[in-house]
Write a structure and sequence with these properties.
about 325 residues, mainly alpha, about 80% helix, 14 helices
Length: about 325
């Protein structure tokens, strides 16, 4: 039986505009540049097959694979529209996570700056006064003065360490895709509320991207392989890659996923429907929307509870310093009186 010939797509202004819109939606600078180049090539009159062949290596595997299938079936506008919706949903989830994490990040920086200033400028004066009077100091005061001396003697080292830590934290917040191992990704996602929100957003992305290829009738092992390469979450990226190899060797998707540490029971339950190809894509889309809504709710909850936790942390730090300095001072005043 002769395979269906690709449906030609020539000088379609809607397709060019859709590619430009997709370039605006994505957070990946290189992908955005590639999509703009593809849009410009179409505007110059190039054939879609030629444009896809030229830029295919620079596209995410899910998008490239879906483009090939959609071209053969004539569903290219539908595939692009769905991919744009996935990118929009992922961008919104990413923005909510950034807002949830940016507040504690800024407060933590201010707390560290306040603590450093007190240790560098306030504590040495008290230490000198206590030393002049030859006072016996409580353990907490001795520890505070020792920390102040260490910080004073190693200012460049401490500053470099703080800068590296701040850079890593900022990268975790801002970068869309980090070179983290699956184990580290799972550890970060075990954090209450924020980790759960991150996992739900990752699961929504997985379901959305897989639905595009399943709906385009891509074989499940190949659909999983392409989806895994396109995921931003390191844990699911590793897990889906392993899952695709197991499914390719004849293992049922749900049973194979249950054996892998990368998948939670909710994902395994969804994969049980992979034996029903006609309904699987619809189920994936429904679950993607549900998980996306749950991730949004968890992110909003995080914003609510992070503020009092950070304020309590600042109060504990400042209270410890004040108590450590003023207990000996009160003792000294009592002795002088």
């Amino acid at each position: 039986m002769t395979p269906a010939a690709p449906v030609p797509v020539r000088n379609d202004p809607n397709l060019s505009m859709t590619l430009a819109l997709l370039a605006e939606e994505t957070l990946d600078f290189r992908l955005s540049r590639t999509l703009r180049s593809m849009s410009a090539d179409l505007d110059r009159g190039s054939d879609w097959s030629e444009v896809l062949r030229t830029h295919q290596r620079r596209l995410p595997p899910v998008l490239a694979g879906a483009f090939e299938i959609a071209q053969a079936s004539g569903r290219l506008p539908n595939v692009l529209g769905e991919y744009i919706e996935v990118m929009r949903r992922n961008r919104q989830a990413r923005r909510r996570m950034m807002l949830s994490l940016m507040y504690p990040f800024i407060v933590l920086l201010l707390t560290v700056a306040l603590l450093g200033g007190m240790l560098l400028f306030l504590v040495p004066g008290f230490a000198s006064m206590f030393n002049d009077f030859g006072m016996e100091l409580p353990a907490m005061t001795v520890g505070l003065i020792g920390l102040s001396l260490f910080l004073t003697e190693h200012v460049p080292l401490v500053a470099a360490g703080m800068a590296i830590a701040a850079g890593l934290m900022l990268a975790l917040i801002l970068l869309p895709r980090l070179p983290l191992g699956g184990a580290l990704g799972r550890m970060l996602q075990s954090v209450p509320v924020l980790g759960t929100a991150s996992w739900m957003a990752a699961a929504a992305e997985f379901f959305s991207l897989l639905a595009i290829l399943v709906d385009a009738q891509k074989p499940l092992p190949e659909a999983l392989r392409l989806t895994g390469k396109s995921l931003t979450d390191s844990n699911l990226r590793d897990g889906v890659g392993d899952l695709s190899r197991l499914v390719e060797h004849g293992e049922p998707a749900a049973e194979a996923a249950a054996l892998l540490p990368n998948f939670r029971p909710a994902v395994v339950q969804v994969l049980r429907h992979s034996q029903r190809p006609t309904a699987f894509a619809r189920i994936l889309r429904t679950q993607a929307e549900l998980f996306s809504l749950q991730a949004e709710a968890m992110a909003r909850l995080a914003i609510v509870w992070i503020e009092p936790v950070m304020l309590a942390l600042i109060g504990l730090v400042v209270g410890f310093i004040v108590l450590s300095l003023f207990l000996p001072l009160v003792k000294l005043l009592n002795e002088l009186a």
